[in-house]
Write a structure and sequence with these properties.
The chain is mainly alpha-helical. It has 18 helices and two strands. Strands 1-2 form a two-stranded antiparallel ribbon. A hairpin with a 7-residue loop joins strand 1 and strand 2. The longest helix has about 35 residues. The two termini are about 25 Å apart.
């Protein structure tokens, strides 16, 4: 009679491979499921915005929310704005960007972006996937809108890739997607996020208040000092982070940039190593059966050691990612994707330029720059991935959605009509990219054997 495989010993540290792949596995599971929720919320928002409830739906997101202490006209404090624009886009999306910062750091420290040779292909693809869509947008606006300055501000809208939707589409295709293509697209999306953050910080921030920038810099310095000193109290970091957010918000730089930088400052290594973790657990086994203060001290030591045996980066990403994927991003979709669609707006210069930037610019840029990187000897294609698969992946990269809608809100914040057209273009280009990407990959990727 064959022996049953031995169960893994919970007291033994995770093998290195498991430690490295666990965050990626959790990431894929949450992103694929949250992509479905995001799609459902997008459809709900579009239906409500084009129904008899459109006015009530629109007014709801313009409800004022804020905090006021004393009389603002007499040295009091007031902070607030619309529910949709201020609370979701400025406050909650800072948490989204904080998780983006964590994802970027994970990829740079332990992912595909750590090795320059492995990073070369997705980075080159991401650069092409940003430059070509921006160029197509600018060219079409020049041709159709005669270089209208307000319309030209939207060149950054078609540069982004939505990770959640891309992962969701890959989940639909199942095992037909080669692992190398999955990793390439994820790394491309992360590199794309880096580019989007730079674009937001440099081109879509207002007039700068240098005194506030100085206070924010001081806050980042305090955060770094707390990390180096080994402070592990979450409330302390929340207070310092809130101070930094407020300083950045008042500085003229979009406050979501504070979230990204705080994510990048998060330590990526555990404070307590595997050897210490194992020693503490083994001592606990001997002492826990006892009574009295010794037992209590041992249990507290085990609790502390277990917590600090995981890096703050992984602990925060695992803890926050579900909230971002299943609450913050769906709320963002409900408040930003609800646009009233008019046929005339579908053919407006901004809508066409954004849609074509995503639908045509992304696959062209990804494929062209990937090819140039391989030809130059800087990169090589992943195993089981050919150029047809890269083209299909480039189409999926045209699903811009979350980040594209966010950039559109910044680019056209003073032009409501252009903002609506930008959102329509984003939705149109993303839908076309998803459909064509799925069809191309189904045609070019072989079916997996059932054996």
């Amino acid at each position: 009679m064959a022996k049953k495989p031995a169960k893994p010993n919970p007291l033994l540290p995770n093998p290195p491979l498991r430690r490295w792949t666990r965050p990626l596995q959790n990431f894929l599971e949450i992103e694929s499921a949250s992509g479905v929720v995001l799609l459902v919320c997008t459809v709900i928002a579009l239906v409500l915005a084009n129904s008899s409830m459109a006015e009530a739906f629109h007014n709801f997101w313009h409800t004022y929310v804020g905090v006021q202490i004393g009389d603002p006209e007499k040295n009091g404090f007031k902070l607030g704005g619309d529910l949709g624009h201020f609370f979701i886009n400025d406050v909650l999306m800072t948490i989204f960007f904080f998780v983006v910062g964590l994802e970027i750091k994970r990829e740079v420290v332990a992912g595909e972006l750590r090795d320059p040779k492995k990073a070369a292909l997705p980075v080159a693809a991401a650069i092409g996937g940003m430059l070509v869509p921006a160029g197509i947008y600018a060219g079409l606006i020049t041709l159709l809108a005669h270089e209208d300055p307000a319309s030209m501000r939207g060149w950054g809208v078609p540069m982004a890739t939505d990770i959640a939707f891309v992962v969701g589409v890959m989940a639909l295709l199942g095992s037909r997607i080669p692992f190398g293509l999955k990793i390439m697209l994820l790394s491309l999306a992360i590199a794309d996020d880096i580019g989007a953050v730079i674009v937001i910080a440099v081109f879509y921030s207002g007039g700068l208040e240098w005194s506030m920038i100085g206070l924010a810099t001081l806050g980042f310095g305090v955060t770094y000092g707390l990390n180096r000193a080994g402070v592990r109290s979450v409330p302390v970091y929340v207070v310092v982070g809130a101070f930094i957010w407020l300083a950045v918000y008042k500085s003229g730089i979009h406050p979501t940039i504070a979230g990204v930088l705080l994510g990048l400052l998060t330590p990526a290594s555990a404070w307590i190593g595997d050897k210490t973790l194992l020693d503490v657990f083994q001592d606990a086994i001997k002492q826990v059966p006892g009574e009295g203060p010794e037992r209590y001290d041992t249990l507290k030591a085990v609790e502390f050691t277990a917590r600090e045996g995981v890096s703050p980066l992984e602990r925060l990403e695992v803890g926050l990612h579900p909230w971002v994927g299943f609450l913050i991003m769906p709320l963002f979709a409900l408040s930003n994707a609800g646009v009233h669609v008019e046929v005339s707006e579908l053919t407006s210069p901004v809508a066409i330029a954004v849609a074509m930037g995503l639908f045509l610019g992304k696959p062209i840029g990804v494929l062209l720059f990937s090819y140039l990187a391989v030809r130059a000897g800087l990169a090589r294609l992943p195993n089981s991935v050919n150029w047809a698969a890269v083209a299909g992946g480039g189409c999926l990269a045209g699903i811009g959605f979350t980040m594209s809608l966010f950039v559109a809100g910044l680019a056209f914040k003073d032009h409501p009509l252009l903002l609506t057209e930008g959102k329509i273009g984003t939705l149109t280009g993303s839908v076309l990219s998803a459909i064509v990407g799925i069809v191309v990959l189904l045609l070019v990727l072989p079916k997996k054997s059932k054996d």
